[in-house]
Amino acid sequence: MLRIITVVVLAGLLQACAGAVVVGAGVAAGAATDRRTIGTQFDDQTIELQALSELGKEESIWRESKLSVVALNGRVLVIGQTPNQEYFNKITQVVRDVSGVQQVLNEVRIKAPVSLGVRSNDSWITTKIKFKIYEDSKLPPGKIKVITEDSEVFLIGFVTAEEERLAIDIARHETGVAKVIKVFELIEAS
């Protein structure tokens, strides 16, 4: 009986290790395909975590809102929903005060947080757009971040003018998309 328990525990531990290896490989692959330097990626991730931490300290805002934060080269996109203008303004101020933030793009909507059904639909829209971007040989896979919030699609990344045009066209023509918002930084074609 002890042997069976030991084997089951060891199998579980090995599965956890395999998961960590897969996640680690995914992170490394993502870092390798990103057009930002590793240092900039680290800085942006630090900004995101710090912004979320600071927003979490605003207990009433955190409790009554649904917020997401994405940083790109010191530019911070905040999306989600909050119930009033006062909270909206405070969200902007809190994020702006985070070290390393150069610009805040507050795209939070003043309304009640969306339902689980809406969030599920948003995930499906994001998946379809990411797949179409991946399928397009003219677009760099893994270099355009796609986030959907209440049927609004946010496209984020460093892209050429042609890549921007193609990505926007893909997102704009996807079923269920109400609006496409680009948060791109344009680069020269190589």
Report on the structure:
With 190 residues, the chain is of the alpha/beta class. Helix content is 54%, strand content 23%. The protein has three domains: 1-33; 38-110, Histidine-containing Protein, Chain: A; 116-186, Histidine-containing Protein, Chain: A, CATH 3.30.1340. The chain has six helices and six strands, in the order H-H-H-E-E-H-E-H-E-E-H-E. Strand 1 and strand 2 (75-82) form a beta hairpin. The longest helix is centred in the N-terminal third of the chain and has 32 residues, at 2-33. The radius of gyration is 19 Å and the shape is globular. Mean pLDDT is 88; it is low at 5-11 and 16-29.
List the helices and strands and how they pair.
Blueprint: H1 2-33, H2 38-57, H3 59-64, E1 66-72, E2 75-82, H4 85-96, E3 103-110, H5 116-135, E4 145-149, E5 152-159, H6 161-172, E6 179-186
Parallel strand pairs: 2-3, 5-6
Antiparallel strand pairs: 1-2, 4-5
